[in-house]
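Fold sample X.
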Amino acid sequence: MNQTKTVMSITDAAADRVKSLMTKAEDGAIGLRIGLRARGCSGMSYTVEYAKDVKKFEEVVEDKGVRILIDPAATMFLIGTEIDYVEDKIQSGFVFRNPNEKARCGCGESFSV
């Protein structure tokens, strides 16, 4: 059996949330794009947006019935990351378990690698 290792994995809860978001997406959306931007006290934060096309060199993860596109500039920082979706009494949202993180700010808004 030939098994390909993906850059990023997705939990069942995250896949369910992506499916829910895709039902509300504008026409032409093909999945969610994950990226990074400079922000916060630690340097980087995750971005999530609807994707209408696949960019050149973009990694595409298709798992559990959803499509996640990884911005090519972010790929090397996201290798091995697991995306989860968590809802509790205080907040709800995607949670990124990234083995490449070296530090995270106290508020949880940003991280460094």
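Fold sample Y, listed below.
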Amino acid sequence: MQEKRYSEMTEYELKTEIAKLQEKARKAEQLGIVNEFAVLERKMAMAKAYLLDPNYFKPGEVYRIEGAPGESFKIEYLNGVFAWGFRLSSPLKQEALPISLLAK
């Protein structure tokens, strides 16, 4: 059975997937499996991005990065649920972040 992509899931399916991932991440954290925990956190961020409206995020604006205290991100452009731009601390290094990691 082929798994659905997050982009093909309904809101309900995404929320169910996020809940499953949270449970797996909690277990991985309890067991001290750091790399698995990090992967599950990234998957949750991706799934959460599909629950958000990309139109809310504007190129040229600066957002806080969730989970990275003191880090800010300036959006240059959006591609789907990814914001492309740079951290203000390293303006020469372009990267893409799921919009779910950005906050005003």
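Sample Y note: The CA atoms of residues 59 and 75 lie 5 Å apart.
Also: Residues 54-103 form a domain with the SH3 type barrels. fold (CATH 2.30.30.340).
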